[in-house]
Amino acid sequence: MSNIFPEIDLSRYDPQTKISRRHARIWRDGDNFLVEDLGSSNGTTVLAQSDVVRLQPHQPYALGNGDRIRLGDTTLHFMKG
After folding, report:
1. CATH fold of 11-77
2. What is the value of pTM for the model shown?
C-alpha cells in the first residue's frame, strides 16, 4: 500500500510511536551498507565503534559491522556476515 519495499513494521518495539514507516532506510550498494534518515521527526543516530553520528536528512552514512542504529528510542544492532 505504501510503495515502500520491504516495509518493516517496528510498532511492537516502539510503543510510543517514535518510528514512522518512512523514518529511515538501509540498503546495500556493492560491498557497502548504507543508512539514511528520510526526514524523520525523531531523528536517526549511528553509534559507530568510535563515534556517535546524528544523521542529517537524506545524507547516506556507510555502516560498519557492529554499528548501532538509533531510530527514535529504539536501537538496532547492525551485523554484517
Report:
1. Tumour Suppressor Smad4 (2.60.200)
2. 0.78
